Amino acid sequence: MTQTDATAAAASVQGPVLVTGGTGKTGRRVVARLRELGVETRAASRSGETPFDWADPTTWQAALDGVTAVYITPLDASPSPTPAFVEQAVASGVRRLVLLSARGVDVPGYFGPAYEDGGPHGEGERAVRASGVTWTILRPGWFSQNFSEGVFLDGVRDGELALPTGDGRAAFIDADDIADVAVAALTEDGHAGEEYGLSGPRALGIADVLDEIAKETGRRAAYVPVDASAFRAGLVADQGFTDQEAGLWTDALEPITTSREAPVLDGVRRALGREPRDFADFVRDAAARGVWG
For 145-201, how does the pLDDT look when each residue is reduced to its tens digit (9 = 90+)? Predict the structure, then answer.
């Protein structure tokens, strides 16, 4: 984006933008980009500069006061609080909503029985569509950053990543691309009513991912395929998950196992006019920051 484009984008936003999950993987990237454009931005989270707690609706109104656009990073819980939040946001004067949803929400059985009818993400999407204001929905697949700052990081660092994903593949999406699409939808025209399916440019298996990291860092972690039931039991016995939490987590990996996450989607290209970042680019940047030691 040129300086002229950045100035125009900032000028097009009337009033502050609220970013829920403002300290999370995508949220903090969205906050940084908006502020670079000169857009007044509220980074909202339980511990952030703008107090916001999905579980405490009394925190919502102060975060929403005067806001004209919101990036919604929803709580993955059922029933979802997103519909009530959307209703309150619109009543408060918000006129643009950008929702972080998930790939496969519109595909029956994509995540297994735990996410019937799209689960919490489906509830959020329906609320946004019915809001009566401008909306855009982002549907990313599995994040590349799960290997650098998320659930897979410890396994990579410890030298062994055990998952029930078999030989399945996924076109992992870089969170920086998600943030770029979100900012475009928050600050530009032309994204109203769009549902952007977001993926990386190629599909990789977990072993391929670890090979990419090893080539860049010299540190090789082994991929250990495990049975889904054993994986679920291990979450309960070794990591303190409840049975329900373990089931949801195991089901969430199913789209990788079945390679439903493998097809490359065109959302980044449609939204931004460029190709998504390759996984190798993500690895190079993460390795330069020393995330894997």
Answer: 999 998 899 999 999 999 999 999 999 999 999 999 999 999 999 999 999 999 999
Architecture of domain 3-142+171-199+262-278: 3-Layer(aba) Sandwich (3.40)
Q: Supply the DSSP string of 166-184, one letter for each residue.
A: TT-EE-PBPHHHHHHHHHH
Residue 140's DSSP bridge partners are 198
Which residues are bridge partners to 222 per DSSP? 160
Query: If DSSP codes are grouped into helix, strand and coil, which group holds residue 69?
Result: strand
Residues 6+ apart with CB under 8 A from 239: none
- Residue 290: is its pLDDT beyond 60? yes
Number of residues assigned to the chain:
293
Cβ pair 174, 182 in contact under 8 A: no
Per-residue confidence (pLDDT) for residue 77, from 0 to 100: 83
Peptide bond into 79 cis (omega under 30): yes
